Amino acid sequence: PHPRPCIISILSMIYLIAALIGIYLLFYGRFLAQEWINFRHKKRLTPLIPGHEGIPFFGNLLELGKDTESGPRVILERARKARQEGKGDLLKIWVVHACTFFPVTGEMMQYILESPDEINKGKNYGFFESWLGRGLLLAGGHKWRMRRKMINPSFHYAMLIEYIDTMNRHAKNLIHVLESHCGNEFDIYPFMKRFTLDVICDTAMGKDLNSLNLPEQPYVKAISKLMYLGAKGSMHPHLWIAIIRWLTGWQREHNRHLKIAHEFTLEVIAERMDILSRGEVDAHKKAFLDMLISEKERSNLSMEDIREEVDTFMFAGHDTTSSALGWTIWCLANHPDIQQKAYEEVKEIFGDDVDRDCTKDDIARMTYLERCIKESLRLFPPVPFISRDLDNDLQMGPYLVPRDSTLMIAPYLLHRNEAIYPNPDLYDPDRFLPENIAARHPYDYIPFSSGPRNCIGQKFAMNQLKIALSLMLRSFRIKSERDFNSVAVLGEVVLKSKDGINVIIESR
């Protein structure tokens, strides 16, 4: 072939590539320049903060391993090693261009938890935004403050009392379902997940989902898949690139389940609005959704705003509580002496009456059971890592933490700090006797986070945990044939066991 057309083709290709690069730089040049400025700023400040920076480009990425099992273990080991070297109050991890800081003492944690300005959640939560929108969990700044103020009354003491009957009813259904599994080892976690889903669906939306008996419903499967896909996306860097999400099928699967979840929520909202307009709602059985609907005109809420908050509570209100419930069962199953003491407290309150509902007074009397729950939340905090993106440089004691980096509120690391909790891997509810609590810094224990962005539903969750566990203890002995420390922990958005919570229950 004549060389001239070949040269023209090559030049055309070069011009096309140059044009594409030019267009890319036109649209993203300012962003890339700002990223480079922020990167240099971080590189200038981070050498002053303890912790090695890994290898060029990758940072500490290769040390963290490939999965959510190895990551938490490696970070915990690094935190303990840093303490042995006398540098144990702030840990840094570099992953490519991003730097994350882990405060591992209550004193250091106080700087971020009490900051009135640094309240924006980390970018890794972005994989849940298409489902949850910018509701209370993901909103920042002014919108978060307005929503928090609006929603606070729904978790007032008087409202929490109204939810107790609903919790009792679903806890009894849980016991009924579990009875068929007596005598054999089984994974109890899926049942805890469906129980807490039924409770939050009933209290948040006024909808009796009954997933304990009907686990194959499209909505039940859809939100389970959205939880899984969101966690997978946030933990795997290759999925941070949109085209790869489409090529791997992640995006198509996500969109399919998202459509089911959103349609269900909007349908329930429409049904509830119709019921409220006809005045057919029991005044003593109001749902969280009812408050949002009543605020619709006053706070200028759209249907999408209401959906965001309902979906947020479905997300935040069931997976975290089921994690807490599952891990507490695991702790009690592996410590029969502690389980017996908790049972004796419950028996003193209820006598031999297995069926009596819990009242608010009963819940207040379960002081030892509460200590058992708190100790399991120390060892296995439902949300092990909570990220905040810094908009400004933040002075944390002697360290200046650079803007555009991530501060990780990490209960999983903090709660296993041997300088705070001697023999930290031991399960000991007496750590939460009043005199022992008083000896610690207020932020040495933060299973529900703390400060302005603490968990709004923590009292709701504790009531639910006490009701379910007290009924389980009245009904069953819980045993384990596995070693307590053999469980493989997955540090995902919600802390889970790799192989489930495998126990044996026996009727009392």
From TrEMBL:
Which residues hold heme?
A: 455
Q: Which UniProt keywords apply?
A: Heme, Iron, Membrane, Metal-binding, Monooxygenase, Oxidoreductase, Transmembrane, Transmembrane helix
SUPFAM superfamilies reported in the protein's UniProt record: Cytochrome P450
- Give this protein's Gene Ontology molecular function annotations: heme binding; iron ion binding; monooxygenase activity; oxidoreductase activity, acting on paired donors, with incorporation or reduction of molecular oxygen
The family database entries (PANTHER family) matched by this protein are listed as: CYTOCHROME P450 FAMILY (PTHR24291:SF130), CYTOCHROME P450 FAMILY 4 (PTHR24291)
The entry sums up its family as follows: Belongs to the cytochrome P450 family.
What is the name of this protein? Cytochrome P450
**Organism this protein belongs to:** Pristionchus mayeri
